Amino acid sequence: MAEITLKGLAHSYEKTPKGAADYAIRQMDHVWHQGGAYALLGPSGCGKSTLLNIISGLLEPSEGDVLFDGQRVNELPPEERNIAQVFQFPVIYDTMTVFDNLAFPLRNMNTPEYRVKPKVLEVADILELTPLLDRKAKNLTADEKQKVSMGRGLVRDDVTAILFDEPLTVIDPQLKWKLRRKLKEIHERFNITMIYVTHDQLEASTFADKIAVMYEGQVVQFGTPRELFERPAHTFVGYFIGSPGMNFMAVEYRDDQVMFGTQPLPVSEQMKHAVASAANASANDISHNNIKLGIRPEFIAISSSEVANSVPIQVTSVQDLGTYSLLTFKLNEQTFKARLPEGHPPVSEAAFAHFDAAHVALYIDEYLVEAGHE
Amino acid sequence: MSLHLQNIDHIVNGVPHISGIDLALEPGSFNVLLGRTLAGKTTLMRLMAGLEPPTRGKIIMDGKDVTNVSVRKRNVSMVYQQFINYPSLTVYDNIASPLKLAKHPKSEIDKRVGEIAEMLHIEHLLNRYPQELSGGQQQRTAMGRALIKDADLILFDEPLVNLDYKLREELRDELRDLFKARNCIAVYATTEPNEALALGGNTAVLHEGRLLQYGPTEQVYREPNGRFSAEMFSEPPINIVPGQLTDSEITFDQTLHFPCDDELKRLEPGDYDFGVRASHLTLQPQQADDLALDVHVDVAEISGSETFLHVRHERFPLVLHLAGIHQFSVNEPLKVYFPTHQLYAFDKQGHTVHIPARQGGAAHG
Amino acid sequence: MNNKVPNNRAWLLVLPMLVLVAFSAIIPLMTVVNYSVQDVLGPNARFFTGTEWFQSMLNDDALQAAFLRQISFSLIILAIQIPLGIGIALIMPKRGWQASAVLILITLPLLIPWNVVGSIWQIFTRGDIGLMGWGLRELGIEYNITRNAGDAWVTIILMDVWHWTPLVAMLCYSGLRSIPEAYYQAARIDRASKWAVFRYIQLPKLTNVLVIAVLLRFMHSFMIYAEPFVLTGGGPGSATTFLSQSLTTMAVGQQDLGPSAAFSLIYFLVILLVSWVFYTTIMNMQKDKPPHGGA
């Protein structure tokens, strides 16, 4: 059982870090609760692997503490932390059979053989490895090998957390969903904290109940997949989650209106007030003049004729993507994407866009301050 | 430049890698080769490039037989899955290398490299070395080298597969725009149906070394000529359920009866495989005669903005493609609705015998 | 089937290679085979002798003794150099300038020509001016490689270990470098002991490199010539006369072309056979035992 707490944690690979840019992980506090299924999502170089290695103990943080159930474990090596880790490329012991591979961690702890066997058989059964137990691990397929490396974590009763480092990279696309299913099943069956590191939104949202999105060494949002989609807390989350990502408009408050360049935007009264007060604050403080509105392509309705609260747009292309169409349009010289459902009526070149007020979000300095209102 | 592959067979050590492929590519066309791993995409590209001659058949470029002409004498370039650049050359020299080999004047090289770099958004990186770049930037450099030499044929062998999905999205968009203005033939291999749809152009569906179908991408997607083609060209894969058709109804699994669509009544009664797209299955009934099915959840795969729900009915598995984010737990019981008017029908030989009418209008402006 | 034209051009491509192999291996070998079945008395006086030379060679006591010495020598140096090489590779620094420095130091013996190695050790072991010979004598240890066969053996083995262990160490070092870090991390998490890491990760990953090392060292040592020739001249008596030296004496010294040709062939076949048996055994060890029911 483990609750993993990161307290004032920061890490730099430099000996004497000078500025924020020298930190792979910028100072953060975070709690992973016992038994949760979590994902750590971010683009390459965002610090997610560094963070994972700090949790597993392969790396010692330069600042702050890692606590397991309240105990400081900064200096404890991985073998003393009761965690297991599954790596990007399957790590198996080539010369051993599948059985011996699964038994390896138990035998290393001098577990008597009569206790090893039932445990290995149980885990092999869950992972559907039973028919392969006598085979040499070297000759397995990539997904079987990855299951073996997972199994080595599951055989240990003392394991309280399993860390996954992009474990499905080498798996055949057609088999991926089966392994995802297996992972969920295992999580539901064993009361183990699982943290899954990936750069793929599908992997993260499928596996995790809650996702920590990392960007430039910081967790910019920690939320459910639905929250990340509907209320991105940071412009990066808006951009990174969803295909295509969120559209952003740098806006000003002029003449009692929210202006996107020369185009007044029809927004809700609350949003208008929020933008107005943000603009007011920015008049005094130069760091606050970064005001943006964000809207996801899913929440822009396109019509050929003008409807209430719509803005005129220039349609540049419509791409049929099978289950939906992707429409690209220009507004105030900026490119936007909108998603049209299958069977949407044809759209003329000069058309109108309606932004669903419930899904327009306000970002100041890249962080969410006001989400949509009806 | 046109390219015609005539009855190509390619056999390596007695194993057929390509069987009877006949494919004509138009000048200036963008073509996607879609197929799973080992479908023969890379082999076909190697044959097109002239890296090896086919065991049988002819390759005609612009009316000339080039079957045995070496790759050096054909004007082709290729971009690979791995980011292949000269490690000891800067980005500038990497991109310029084909022109330098062809001994173009310095001023012209400067101009062309500048243009290409701008197009690929790497103009600020020209003095860097490949190992100092991110994966996306490295692949842009490799693409720059392929694009600069005005090749007649440019081959892309899954160039984006090693990049993360945001970069993939961006580069895909750029690639499509890049080729609008060019007059060469582009061939792009991918395993992902969604990538083919996003790239547009034409699509050739390959399976086990055979060409299943070739045509405008959208049309191949909407009107697959057979069951395999439909399965290869859908992500998540189209649901296939075997059933019996009589003159008034369809029966799945001997127990599920429902009245059959008027269009389907024209078919001979008998056994068929019925296909329904994942996006056409729903959690709420869309029409009065939708068939309700009791299923259990296998797993819900969630991308950033949509959900792929794997469920199983007593006898067959189904996949639903739902807009928005929905969470389910494993083994949760559920009712899903099966649209009886949106069925594809395939005969037992796998040929398409019925295609459902499109709902609503085309989304095109 | 009119379009089934067998592509003969492929053969043309292989032709230069075949010619090359013929000149470098097959033709010289055939010359030897030719000599081995004839008795050449003069330019035009040759007699076909069949397997006579082979039989006499196989029954030659001196040669049998040399063969046994050779086998013992090869086995001893393999038994020392392979574990020692692995050991050195394991304790070599992994990165930084120390790694480069150690690599350079260790490769130095490999750069010295065989006969020079022999001369160096010949001087090194001399009781009057050689550091080792003098040192041992000062310590009161009886040591003379020209009189005592045991001393001669120990010295030759020491010399070979000094000269060639670096090769094994370097091969192993490069093999160890190619093991991904994740393996070590996984092993730590699995609480594997140092020995288990060596036994189940490092050693299996080194298999291919070790096969090459063993084959190279076996073939090399089986043909050893210059060093013992310079150091001991094959003595005392014939205590350190190895196969290649016997062969040279026979072919060059006594001009017995027939017997030495037959002997060369036997020599060649032995090396080939041992290498082949070793290689196939190792490769078979890596295969799966067929699963029950033979699927």
From TrEMBL, chain B:
Q: Which domain of life is it from?
A: Bacteria
Listed PANTHER family: MALTODEXTRIN IMPORT ATP-BINDING PROTEIN MSMX, OSMOPROTECTIVE COMPOUNDS UPTAKE ATP-BINDING PROTEIN GGTA
- Native species: Vreelandella titanicae
Q: Does the keyword ATP-binding apply?
A: yes
Specify the protein name.
Sn-glycerol-3-phosphate import ATP-binding protein UgpC
GO function term, MF aspect, one: ABC-type ferric iron transporter activity
Q: Which SMART domains match?
A: AAA
- The question of whether ATP-binding is a record keyword is answered with yes
- Print the keywords alphabetically: ATP-binding, Cell membrane, Membrane, Nucleotide-binding, Transport
Automatic annotation (TrEMBL), chain C:
N-terminal signal peptide: none
**Record-level GO BP terms:** transmembrane transport
Write the record's keywords in alphabetical order, separated by commas: Membrane, Transmembrane, Transmembrane helix, Transport
Membrane-related topology note: Multi-pass membrane protein
Q: Where in the cell is it found?
A: Cell membrane
**InterPro entries assigned:** MetI-like, MetI-like_sf, Sugar_ABC_transporter
Q: What's a GO cellular component annotated to this UniProt protein?
A: plasma membrane
Among Gene3D superfamilies, the record links this protein to:
MetI-like
Q: Name the family the entry cites.
A: Belongs to the binding-protein-dependent transport system permease family.
Protein name per UniProt: Sn-glycerol-3-phosphate transport system permease protein UgpA
